[in-house]
């Protein structure tokens, strides 16, 4: 039985797309792939294109991932080079060229290998920096290592002006390289030095953030990497716990990138009970100075990161103690927004505190009665009221929410609780609101009205709303499809308009959608009427050759009937 290929070709085609796959196949046939290493779940290669790209394909069978250094991967993901590497890996049983090189190097003398590495250092600055850092770490004194690596961190992180999207990947690679050198200090007994250098790196990365297009999140990833190096160094060096707790707390409170969020839990082993006690004392001291925030402060910029960060810290300790009351009190200190009430009520529900959940939900709705409420809080309050046997109060709560901000979820709940009467009241409320001279979110309201009428199969009323108000194409299309049997004429009018709009837009997708609509129209009128329409539209759009090709097959099918 033949061995199964490493990667499923059909899966590669699906991920890459037909055109990209075919280009990758051509690269493979042309011998542009050099497999560097091949193991159970990872294939690394060099692919010759407009330049030599470093390509990695991971996984096995239909589970395929990886990355490539080419611009196409940066913009679109899975690229032709990755497809080529997958096909090349399927076509070989070898372990890759690196393994052949490994076997060859074992036959060489130590002096020959040293000469080879040194000559490579002259041509490869990255290799030189890597070996320089390893050499200094192994042989230099602490002052020399600190000076050299701090300078390396500064050089890697600094920017000459703004680094745009295209340059961030290379910038991040340089920073990652020097962080790897810092991490290597831990293995040679220099963990205390690595600890301080990791802190310096985090400070420099955060300082560089305003000068980086961080759309891909490189700064955050690098700060987490540096934090992980810091954590490993702390575990190895075992710093004085109370002093270390004070440093960590300050960093958690001040970090822009959040590398030290949840530091007490992350560093629990390093801090020990003494350090954790100091961490908790610092948080409680800061928490006590923060005023309670209420709905009365909603017009002010009352909320700050201090509340979130310290609440998270103290919540960790309270959860560690199993103290639900303390955790509830933490969430009750800042109730300046409907969302904060929602969060508190959800916590109560999750911990079986139903009475407290309902009390807090009603309180939140009352506090913010005059303003914009959180729809989720309204729905949750109604659920809790219904579960408490207060059905009429639940309905009243939903009606207030619906009248302020009509929504599908409110409608469904009202329909379930109030039946046909609630349905009619809600529909009338939507129709009446659209007749007012100035209605915010009117497009959303009319879409909701039509969608609801479609669901209730009130098609005549839905078409009346469409004629009276502007509705989205998607909503009108859904109405057309649902009402073809009873309102074929209305559906046809929409399809005709929609076809014209799609063809005018142009492109393979719109043409395909237009042709699909035209096929649907064929079932709604006689063959003679449909052939006449096809003839007219083919004449009107004769220059749109790709669209006409799609229609020709439809014309022949109708003529054969």
Polypeptide structure, described:
With 561 residues, the chain is mostly helical. It is built from 28 helices and four strands. It has helices at residues 9-16, 18-29, 71-76, 80-90, 97-105, 110-123, 125-139, 142-157, 165-187, 191-208, 218-237, 241-254, 263-266, 268-289, 305-321, 324-332, 338-350, 354-367, 375-387, 391-404, 408-434, 442-455, 459-468, 473-482, 488-505, 508-522, 527-540, 545-560, and strands spanning 33-38, 42-48, 52-60, 63-68. A four-stranded antiparallel β-sheet has the order 1-2-3-4. The mean pLDDT is 88.
Brief synopsis:
The chain has 28 helices and four strands.
**Span from first to last CA?**
50 Å
Helix content: over 70%
Question: In angstroms, what is the radius of gyration?
Answer: 33 Å
* Uncertain residue segments: none
Integer average pLDDT: 88
Structural descriptors:
flat, single chain, four-stranded antiparallel sheet, mainly alpha, 561 residues
Layout of secondary structure:
Blueprint (H helix, E strand, L loop, with lengths): L8 H8 L1 H12 L3 E6 L3 E7 L3 E9 L2 E6 L2 H6 L3 H11 L6 H9 L4 H14 L1 H15 L2 H16 L7 H23 L3 H18 L9 H20 L3 H14 L8 H4 L1 H22 L15 H17 L2 H9 L5 H13 L3 H14 L7 H13 L3 H14 L3 H27 L7 H14 L3 H10 L4 H10 L5 H18 L2 H15 L4 H14 L4 H16 L1
Antiparallel strand pairs: 1-2, 2-3, 3-4
Helix pairs in contact: 1-2, 1-4, 2-4, 6-7, 7-9, 8-9, 8-10, 9-10, 9-11, 10-11, 12-14, 14-15, 15-16, 17-18, 18-19, 19-20, 20-21, 21-22, 22-23, 22-24, 24-25, 25-26, 26-28, 27-28
């Amino acid at each position: 039985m033949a061995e199964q290929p490493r990667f499923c070709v059909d899966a590669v085609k699906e991920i890459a797309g037909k055109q990209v796959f075919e280009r990758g196949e051509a690269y493979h046939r042309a011998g542009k792939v050099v497999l560097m290493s091949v193991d159970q779940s990872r294939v690394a290669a060099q692919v010759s294109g407009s330049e030599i790209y470093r390509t990695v394909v991971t996984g096995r069978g239909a589970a395929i991932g990886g990355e490539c250094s080419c611009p196409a991967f940066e913009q679109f993901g899975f690229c032709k080079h990755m497809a080529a590497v997958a096909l090349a890996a399927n076509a070989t049983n070898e372990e890759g060229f690196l393994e052949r090189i490994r076997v060859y190097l074992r036959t060489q003398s130590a002096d020959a290998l040293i000469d080879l590495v040194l000559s490579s250092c002259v041509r490869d600055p990255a290799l030189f920096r890597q070996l320089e850092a390893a050499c200094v770490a192994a042989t230099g004194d602490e002052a020399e290592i600190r000076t050299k690596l701090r300078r390396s961190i500064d050089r890697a992180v600094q920017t000459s002006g703004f680094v745009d999207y295209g340059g961030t990947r290379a910038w991040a690679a340089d920073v990652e390289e020097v962080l790897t050198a810092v991490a290597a200090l831990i293995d040679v007994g220099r963990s205390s030095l690595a600890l301080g250098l990791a802190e310096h790196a985090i400070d420099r990365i955060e300082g560089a953030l305003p000068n980086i297009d961080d759309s891909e999140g490189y700064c955050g990833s690098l700060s987490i990497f540096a934090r992980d190096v810091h954590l490993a160094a702390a575990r190895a060096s075992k710093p004085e716990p109370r002093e270390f707790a004070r440093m960590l707390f300050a960093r958690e409170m001040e970090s822009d990138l959040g590398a030290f969020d949840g530091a007490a839990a992350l560093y629990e082993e390093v801090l020990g009970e003494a350090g954790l006690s100091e961490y908790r004392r610092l948080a409680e001291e800061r928490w006590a100075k923060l005023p309670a925030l209420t709905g009365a402060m909603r017009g002010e910029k009352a909320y700050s990161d201090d509340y979130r960060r310290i609440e998270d810290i103290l919540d960790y300790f309270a959860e560690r103690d199993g103290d639900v009351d303390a955790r509830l009190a933490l969430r009750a200190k800042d109730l300046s927004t409907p969302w904060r009430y929602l969060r508190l009520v959800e916590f109560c529900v999750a911990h079986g505190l139903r009475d407290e959940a309902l009390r807090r939900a009603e309180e939140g709705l009352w506090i913010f009665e005059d303003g914009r409420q959180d729809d989720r809080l309204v729905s949750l309050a109604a659920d809790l009221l219904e579960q408490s046997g207060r059905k009429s109060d639940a309905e009243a709560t939903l009606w207030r929410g619906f009248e302020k901000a009509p929504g599908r979820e409110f409608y469904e709940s009202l329909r379930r609780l109030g039946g046909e009467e609630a349905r009619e009241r809600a529909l009338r409320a939507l129709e009446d609101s659209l007749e007012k001279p100035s209605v915010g979110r009117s497009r959303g309201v009319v879409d909701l009205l039509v969608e609801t009428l479609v669901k209730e199969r009130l098609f005549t009323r839905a078409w009346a709303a469409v004629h009276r108000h502007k509705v989205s194409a998607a909503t009108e299309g859904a109405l057309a499809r649902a009402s073809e049997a009873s309102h074929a004429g209305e559906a046809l009018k929409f399809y005709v308009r929609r076809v014209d709009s799609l063809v005018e837009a142009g492109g393979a997708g719109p043409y395909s959608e237009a042709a699909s609509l035209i096929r649907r129209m064929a079932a709604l009128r006689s063959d003679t009427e449909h052939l006449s329409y096809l003839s007219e539209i083919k004449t009107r759009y004769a220059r749109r050759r790709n669209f006409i090709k799609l229609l020709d097959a439809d014309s022949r099918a109708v003529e054969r009937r």
